[in-house]
Amino acid sequence: METTEIVLDADQRSAADRLDAIAARVGKRWRRPRGLYLYGGPGRGKTMLMNRFFESVPTARKRRYHFHAFFARLNAGIHEYGGIDASAAALLGDAELICFDEFHVHDSGDARLVARLLDTLFARHITLVVTSNYPPQDLLPNPYMHAMFVPTIDRILEHLDVVSVNGPTDYRTLGGRHTGFAAGHYVVGACPETGAVDLPVAHRQLHARAVENGVITVGFAELCGIPVSAADFLELTADLHTWVVCDVPPLGTVPPDWVMRFVNLVDVLYDADLELSVYAEVPLAELGAEVRRVPDLYRTLSRLGELREPANLEAR
Is the per-residue pLDDT at 313 higher than 80? Predict the structure, then answer.
């Protein structure tokens, strides 16, 4: 069977060479490798490079997490084990390599936990490799809170080499993938008529329009207008593999915390490669217009660009 060779651009090739050098030294007793911090815009191949690297490292003492998922488990473990150090220890186990995909810090409370977590990793001499849409200097970008995170940024720069993966092509815009997340579609128009059903989430009731056979249909306001977290979305994906979100308005017309929940939802579904369909009031090109103070929305719009437009829908 003939295979297609992946041709890397210049930034990807440079990052791949650095990752190969780390892979060759993970687990060595002496001269343990420095970690690596890969950053760049969405769709530049960072996750692909990390996956390729992770699979190539010949040890069982490695862990790879999407940062949303890891942070949800870390927070849950704090309550279960009685503190962040014990929770982190349970998650890290005997790992000598940790990979975080989509590393980011936007909240001051999260920033304190991230600082403690990184101190634990570095103290144990665990090799850390991360991907992020942000260079380290842009983590916790809120100007009123950024200064508190500068010492942690300095620690990151002390222990990790920083490499840009920011080539000219957003590979997500090239299309050609119609499975998982990208099997969904983006429609300007109303959802088909459904009913009403309540679903328990985060000690409250989510008012969905339909939940059946692993498929949830829910309005944007009902889903993003209540205080749910990325961890709550992760919990729901255990039983729900197909998501239909209706009545999505221009995001500049709703509160920023609603937009941030939508960003979290798309991140969770994209990382789990679960199908998402969006019924919106405006075309995708207009969806994020006039939005202010919502980190990572540009990544969400890039990911939604993988969804099929109605004219391109095929028989399913």
Answer: no
